[in-house]
Write a structure and sequence with these properties.
Elements (H helix, E strand, L loop, with lengths): L1 H32 L3 H13 L1 H12 L4 H25 L2 E2 L2 H22 L1 H5 L5 E2 L1 H20 L16 H32 L4 H12 L2 H12 L3 H26 L2 E2 L5 H16 L8 E2 L1 H20 L2
Antiparallel strand pairs: 1-4, 2-3
Helix pairs in contact: 1-2, 1-8, 1-10, 2-8, 2-11, 3-4, 3-11, 4-10, 4-11, 4-12, 4-13, 5-11, 5-12, 7-11, 8-9, 10-11
Length: 318
């Protein structure tokens, strides 16, 4: 028990320090290459913090257990938007830029809609099967490549950064990023595994562990990174991290998993998909609720209420 507590604290420390170094390195790299912090959050940070989901999904697909990838991504994206952005907005209200409104938030919604249309082809159109085929996977990957190209093509440096970024040379910034991602992934696994062992020792049920520790564990890197970014007043990096992770999860991870092994929608309920779409739409409505063009504390509170309601529904229906 004592060893598990020590490992738990060590994992938590690695996550905290990893997030700090990832934010610093990413911000410095954005300055070096003349990119916005949002695009760095969307790409390097978003992909880096989603690495655990990608590894689990691709290995599962290769081993013939591809269906688990779908539930992992749907749950992770809901957790990312409603809980993580909710908490982040309570710490630091985030400005939503013109590019966010015109390109990034709509793309997040389009990604979910395309996933639902491709995944429920039989239910909606009466053709094919309810799942992602290899052709569907190719479509998702093509959308991912196109969106990444557009993001880099239209990116420009932040005109008025909220805080000064440490002056790091490019290799040190890259080292910060790689080390930060490694610490997040390893620390997150250590944190989750030790937390599960402690919970079992205390007699906590497997159902509760699955809903809380395991469900949140795969999104621990995103949570730590967003909180660190909020504390450093880098709201665009935090927003880019979540939108990037969500798009990365659906288009690249599910697209790649479907190419390896087609995915079935049999175990995904309409409620799950409805909440996933609602979480994407909530980002759009946040431009108009409360302070205009800002993800403010009111939006954050509403996100958390919606997340709590979904968690309650999951517990009741287990």
């Amino acid at each position: 028990m004592l060893l598990q507590i020590i490992l738990f604290l060590a994992g938590l420390a690695l996550v905290v320090f990893g997030a700090d170094y990832l934010v610093e390195g990413s911000s410095a790299l954005a300055r070096k290459f003349g990119l916005s912090e949002f695009v760095i959050g969307l790409t390097i940070v978003g992909m880096g913090t989603s690495a655990p989901e990608m590894v689990v999904s691709f290995i599962g697909a290769a081993q013939g257990n591809a269906d688990i990838a779908l539930g992992n991504v749907v749950g992770s994206n809901i957790f990312n938007t409603l809980l993580i952005l909710g908490i982040t907005a309570l710490i630091l209200p985030m400005a939503i830029t013109r590019e966010n409104r015109r390109r990034d938030i709509p793309m997040n919604i389009v990604t979910v809609v395309v996933l639902i249309l491709l995944g429920l082809e039989h239910t909606i159109f009466g053709a094919g099967t309810d799942g992602l085929s290899r052709l569907d996977g190719g479509i998702l990957l093509a959308l991912f490549i196109g969106y990444m190209w557009l993001s880099f093509k239209t990116s420009s440096p932040d005109e008025n950064p909220a805080t000064e970024t440490k002056q790091l040379n490019i290799w040190l910034a890259i080292l910060f990023i790689i080390g930060g991602i490694a610490a997040l992934i390893f620390g997150g696994r250590l944190f989750v595994n030790s937390a599960v062992s402690i919970a079992h020792t205390l007699g906590v049920s497997d159902k509760f562990i699955a809903i809380t520790i395991l469900a949140g564990g795969t999104s621990m890197p995103e949570l730590a990174t967003c909180v660190a970014a909020a504390v450093k007043k880098k709201g665009q990096l935090a927003l880019g991290n979540i939108i990037g992770s969500n798009i990365f999860n659906v288009l690249l991870i599910l697209g790649g998993s479907a190419l390896i092994n087609p995915l079935s929608f049999a175990d995904i309920s309409y409620i799950d998909l409805g909440i996933l779409l609602a979480s994407a739409l909530a980002l759009l409505t946040s431009c108009h609720i409360g302070k205009k063009n800002s993800l403010d504390r009111l939006d954050g509170a509403l996100f958390l209420i919606l997340w709590a309601g979904y968690m309650a529904w999951l517990i009741v229906n287990l």
